[in-house]
Amino acid sequence: MKEWKSRRKCPLLVFSFFLMNVWLQGLPAEWIKDASQNLPVCIAREDQHFPDLISDNHSGIIVAWRDVRNGNRDVFAQRISANGEMLWENDGIPICVQPSAQSWPLLVPDAEAGAIIVFGDSRHRNRDIYAQRVDANGKLLWGKDGIPVSIVPFLKEDVKAISDGNGGTIIVWEDSRHGNLDIYAQRIDGTGKPAWELNGVPVYKGEGDQYDPFLTTDDTGGAIIAWWDISTPDWNVFAQRMGATGERVWENGGVPVCTAPGNQGGPFVVADSSGGAFVVWSDYRNDPNIFSSADLYAQRIDANGKVLWEKDGINFCNDPSNQQQPEGISDGMGGLIVTWWDDRDIFADIYAQRIGPDGVPMWQNNGSPICVAAGVQREPHLVSDGSQGAIIYWKDFREDYGNVTADAIYAQRIDADGKSIWTFNGAPVCTADGDQIAPRAIANGRGGAFIVWSDYRGKDADIYIHQIP
Fold first, then answer.
1. Rounded CA gap, 391 and 202, in Å?
2. In what order do the strands lie in the sheet with 39-42?
3. How large is the average pLDDT for residues 445-462?
4. Can you identify the CATH homologous superfamily of domain 39-468?
5. Hey, which residues does 102 pair with through a beta bridge?
6. pLDDT tens for residues 169-187?
7. Model pTM score
8. Where are the domains of the chain?
9. DSSP letters of 341-365?
10. Shortest CA distance to 173 belongs to which of 110, 103, 113?
């Protein structure tokens, strides 16, 4: 009996050691926990700005940014392992180093372990749009300097991009080829070939100007796009669905999301997991002083372009103060979670609300407070925590007193009921000296997030990253 027991213990012991080894290998050995230090991604000479990031599908991330080390604006990128290891060249690999200027890069997953990088480019003396694909080893797949998305000789601005779900990307932008700003889009497949009409197809082409396009997937290879329309005295919000082959699926002029009296703007779109989308925006219909106090509204549109909630949207925050920059994600249960900055307590704070599939707000009236610390909090963004909650992160000025600006980045995790899980008023992401600019984040798959930003703690701007918690 004793011999049998001893034999039983041996495999259990081996298995225990195996589990311990797996656990140790998963620890972020290179990540710096101190929020005043953080992990440098690129500290090359001159400025690095506007980083973006995506998952590499192997628990790590790929980061891209605009880089001035060569005397003009180029695009560089780096891949970082789950353990915080830099996997490509020190300070990143060049994605495009044309003598012309390249602008703010956007990253889209390529369905493997690489990325599609979309960026602005002036090599033809216009503000054009180009794209490049890089594999897991940092090899450029679409030529030396990328492939053109749109190179018509007119202004192209406010570019956004998402995955098409098939290894390619769908890109949308403001386009002035007809003398005013219209909305155009293009789909690039995984080989770098345009899937739609060369130089893009019109999402909306008409009189007046259309601004701030934002898009999300329609789950069938196309996209749902919303924009802000100022072709009438009142500024309204419209939306259109583009099919996988580049056709306009809904009515030709787009679905009116909100045409209420007064002005509406800054739409943000979230897929509803049923082929439709939620749209949230800032709304001035109840603002007697014009642009001094916005409320927040939302609408849901189904896959056929039918508006499902109250005409002109449901109001989910109407505090008499000013609410701005609403941004949302799916709550994983058919609804969405929205965050914004809010002036109800003199200085801007961060609030959030969860809205059910039927358009009913689920948390406290006018939103749950996420951060009400001293000073100003602005530019909130959020990612899913994988458990029907969210991780919200923002620029924070709670230590900004006197004549010296003290930027910081903070974050908070909230559960499905809107309750804060981390430290009250948020956990520090970066408290280093100098300015921290344009933070962007993705979930890390373990209830936390990777957050990257441009940082002025040194003599010029560098790229830093932090994993929280």
1. 35
2. 39-42, 462-468, 449-455, 436-443
3. 96
4. Prolyl oligopeptidase, N-terminal domain (2.130.10.120)
5. 121
6. 999 999 999 999 999 999 9
7. 0.92
8. 39-468
9. EEEEESEEEEEEEEE-TTS-B-SST
10. 103
